[in-house]
Write a structure and sequence with these properties.
Blueprint: E1 4-12, E2 17-22, E3 32-35, E4 39-41, E5 52-60, E6 63-71
Parallel strand pairs: 3-6, 4-6
Antiparallel strand pairs: 1-2, 1-5, 2-3, 5-6
Length: about 70
């Protein structure tokens, strides 16, 4: 699995998910979903919009999802 990099663009902390803009993606439609259970460090509730992250990508029933997310 290849490590990817991007920036957190949105958070729905009360629902436990957010979105990442992968490096090189120009349009919002390319943002990648992540769930609180896929965050390694720091905790999900400590994440902030604009933080740079590294992560892995897996295919799930609704498309692709970031997991093993770590703030850089």
């Amino acid at each position: 699995m290849e490590t990817k990099y991007g920036t957190i663009t949105a958070m729905k902390k009360e629902k436990g998910y957010g979105f990442i803009r992968p490096d090189g993606a120009e349009e919002r439609k390319e943002d990648l979903f992540f769930h609180a259970r896929g965050v390694l460090s720091p905790s999900f509730h400590q994440l902030k919009i604009g933080e740079r992250v590294e992560y892995l990508v897996r295919e799930v029933s609704k498309g692709n999802e970031a997991y093993d997310l770590v703030v850089m």
